[in-house]
What does this fold into?
Amino acid sequence: MSKSSPHVHLIDHPLVQHKLTLMRKKDASTNSFRSLLNELAMLMAYEVTRDMPTQEVEIETPLEKMKARVIDGKKLVLVSILRAGTGILDGMLSVVPGARVGHIGLYRDPKTLKPVEYYFKMPQDMSERDVLVVDPMLATGNSAIAAVARIKALHPKSIKFVCLLTCPEGIAALHQAHPDVDIFTAAIDRQLNDHGYILPGLGDAGDRIFGTK
Ligand code: URA
It folds into this structure.
């Protein structure tokens, strides 16, 4: 993984890049798009959780006692921005099965491109937890900014934003609104188009995950 600027972590592992390329292809089937996203999310979870705190505990192997490391503190919270976030959530949960899950429902008004909230449900004790907000596409940044603001009001210990793809406009917008939130992504594409889509991108992530178009 390389860090392209202090707040953006570009996950450039060859397996991640290969799978992302397969997903971008316009003729990838819904089935393969979804399973590739699942695999990618598992690989990304591995990098994103690299700095999770651990503590030593004493255990007993069949041969002797030893001190070994386990993850410390309250369970991580994965917050999925509906609906496309679900695609990343499933893969991440297979790597961090004990994580708690929050959902935030935001849709993008097609005229203003502004987020409209329709659902918000988070686990208890957010102030004692680290949060990973997941959404495959960080495009205009509007949904990400709104989601992070809502979560911040619950005072979690930390917030990271995990996406598959972003662009300079999305990074700048999220960073300006929330400079304390690091962004993890598999690619930074060229630009946004006038409809708020990332170019070259991969199209509408939600439609491609759920086969709705
Ligand atoms: N959301 C998507 O699904 N795709 C984009 O390119 C931008 C936002």
About this structure: The CA atoms of residues 125 and 156 lie 8 Å apart.
